[in-house]
Amino acid sequence: MAVMALASVVPHHVQVSIVTGDPLSRAGLAATLGGQPGIAVVDEPAGDDHAVTVVVADEVDEAVARDIRAARATGRDRIVLLVGRVDDAGLLAAVESGVSGVVRRSQATGTNLAAAIRAAAAGEGTLPPDLLGRLLSQVGRLQRQVLGPRGLTFAGLTEREIAVLRLLAEGFDTAVVGRRLYFSERTVKNIIHDVTSRLDLRNRTHAVVYAMRQGLI
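The structure assignment produced for this chain is given below.
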């Protein structure tokens, strides 16, 4: 069933571009992927929303993060990182830069790399189990040590801001929201202004929609 669902989303051929500073690595990778069904290695994707970029690196440093961000800036937001080694900081940097999947070079075969590419083309992510565990540990540590003490969530909102937006979503005006939360109406309006300014949202309706899309209310 899962295979059928994937096939319905991914086109017959996934266009794959390769970013690497080593021409030999590119040639070898292109030859490996060229033998995989449904994979077409190209220099530049031709307007395909499902196209995938494979970034090849020894480790994740600022130059690699820059390559990933540059690919995303051109509209190629489906990126698989083929990396030699990755520590906790590098893993977090790769995820922050916007990769869809990570494959270790020592574990890469044509088959599993092609699977990661197809998953990225379908809008899914791929991580080796140990890297997933390390990433989740880092996320938990970030929440406990950085965001939690500041009253923030991963969506960039405080619990107080979420409470205000939740009541606005229920149709209450700022005066009623203030009474419900024991705030002055001025405080409620200041909270709304802070949220819309910080997150570059147009108005309180946009802020409510943002919170709903984030699954906060």
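Interim note for the steering committee: The mean pLDDT is 82. DSSP finds ten helices and five strands in the chain.
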